[in-house]
């Protein structure tokens, strides 16, 4: 079984998982979320992540999406995975956003490792754009 683990500062990962539930239904069972809370030290966060990790199948593959590469939450998670010899079966990506998480949830069980990485990163990047209102009445879809 493959798991997606959302890692963030604060409640971002929990909120993102909540939003994913609206789109993926039962697929959410293999999505986990954990965030370093305000005022929480990294040792406590590490213990909470170890606890979460212990609930997952030992031979499972993991896809970790973190909010910031180099941030304390993601660094702590990677250190634990390294100590538990789980990095070889783990993909770690940073800069997570909703399109990345949705794409990862849908593809994590079917795409090859390389295709998963490129698809998730491409989806996350392509979602970044400025919203513009088009005032051209000829572009209206109404008939």
TrEMBL record:
Residues 1-128 form the PTS EIIA type-4 domain. The keyword Transferase applies. Keywords: Transferase. Pfam families: EIIA-man. Signal peptide: none annotated. One of its GO terms (molecular function) is transferase activity. One of its GO terms (biological process) is phosphoenolpyruvate-dependent sugar phosphotransferase system. GO terms for cellular component: membrane. This is PTS system mannose-specific EIIAB component.
